[in-house]
Design goal:
Blueprint (H helix, E strand, L loop, with lengths): L13 E4 L3 E8 L4 E8 L5 E4 L5 H8 L6 E4 L10 H8 L2 E5 L12 E3 L4 E4 L2 E7 L8 E6 L5 E6 L2 E2 L2 E2 L6 H16 L7 E4 L5 E2 H4 L3 H7 L2
Length: 218
Amino acid sequence: MTYSGAVEVGGPADVHELTDLMISKIAVGPMNNNAYLLRCRATDEQLLIDAANDSARLLDFIGDDGIASVVTTHRHGDHWQALDEVVRATGARTHAGRHDAEGIPVATDVLVDDGDTIRVGRVTLTARHLVGHTPGSIALIYDDPHGHPHVFTGDCLFPGGVGNTWGEERSFASLINDVERKLFDVLPDETWVYPGHGADTTLGAERPHLGEWRERGW
C-alpha cells in the first residue's frame, strides 16, 4: 500500500516504509492530533513523537516492544495529554525543547537544543528549534541516506502555512523566518512533512507560497 498520511481518529494507522525506518501515523483525541511511531528496522527500537491523547490507543499502537523514547514537539496541552500514562507504562525517556519543557507537566529527561541529535536504534534525527508558535517548539529531521529527507514539524508547519501565532507580528516573523531558514533553505522540495494535525505535505508543495504567507501575516 502506498503511504498517503491520511488518517482519522479511531481509524487505522498509515505506515510509511523506508529502507532503515518505519514511520507509522495515527490520529487521536478531540483535536485530531497526529502521533508518529518511528521504528528502526535494524534494531526494532521505537520512538514516539507526541503522546497527544488516548493513552490506551497509543499503547496498543506501540505494542509489546515498547518505546525507548518519546519526544514532545511543544508545550501545548493537546500534544501531551497521554504522556504521563505512556511513560509510566513504557519507562521511555522523555525529550522536549529546552524552552518548552517547563510547560509540560511530565519531567523531561533530555532537554533538546537546536541541532541536537536524537537516536532511535541506528537512525539519527536532528532537532531544529522553531520559535513563534511556542518558545521551544522543535522539529525533527530524518535525512534518509537512501532517499529524500523527512521532517516532523509539530504545529510549526502545515499544508497552507506556518503554525498559529495569534496575530502577534513578532511571533509570526520569528516562526516564518525559522521555518524558512532552517527547513526550506536547507532541505529539498522532495522533503516529506509530517505535521502535528491533519494531512501531510512536502516542502515543494508549500515553497511557492512562502511570499503569500509573509504578505498575509499568518
